[in-house]
Structure formats: structure tokens, C-alpha cells
């Protein structure tokens, strides 16, 4: 079941980005929306697919890793497998890339255009086990609203 917070976020995403055609501008505002709506997070943003790596996109938070090889770390693994990854303790994730040592848990959701992964939404928290199934369902709903508004 989706929490009211995520239902509201998905509706705001759809309304804000409907008809927008600039991906960077939309990602910048989407990361700001997430930063405003979610408690107990320290980073929210995007990495964009470029060849065999992910390149840092718009975000809210501290300075981040600029490039992540496909298949490496939580972001690269989520992009390569095209699956949402919810990690309770990033320090236990094999190959974790520590961009911010204060981050302890993470959720990464692939972003699609025409069926292909074009990037990922990455959200970090300083708390262990910050993201649960309700967060995953709600954030995936928001990402689907984002994709629909921009690419349909």
C-alpha cells in the first residue's frame, strides 16, 4: 500500500513535469521535491547512463561521485540489472562506493525511456534500514509518474 506522502508526491511529479521536455531541469526539480518530502535523508539525485558508466546528474546534498561504472556499487548494479535496490546497510553491500561516509542506507530506482534504462534515482540516508517496502512502492510510483510526464 502506498502512503499518502507518496501518493501526493506522485501527483505533484505528474503535475509539475507534464509537458516538460528538458530532462535536466525536471531531474533538478524532482530531486528538490524528494529532499522536501522525505525525512531522514542526506542525498537525493540522479545518475545518467552514458555508455558503460553512470554520470552524476542533478541532486540535493553533499558533493558526490562523478562517475560510477555500470555494475559497480548500488547505483551501477541497479542500472545494470534494471531493478530497484533497497539496501539496509550500504557498508555490507559488496562493492559499495562510498561517496559520503555519513550514508548508511540507500534506495536506487532505474529511470526508463522507451524501455531502456537512461539513469537512476538515488536516495541516501544516514540511518540504517531507512527505506522499507512502502518507500520502495511509493518511490517507484513517483518515478513512473516522472517517466510518464516527460516521455509519453
Automatic annotation (TrEMBL):
It comes from the Bacteria. Residues 43-136 form the GAF domain. PROSITE patterns: UPF0067. Pfam families: GAF. Belongs to the free Met sulfoxide reductase family. This is Free methionine-R-sulfoxide reductase YebR. It comes from Shewanella colwelliana (Alteromonas colwelliana). The gene is yebR.
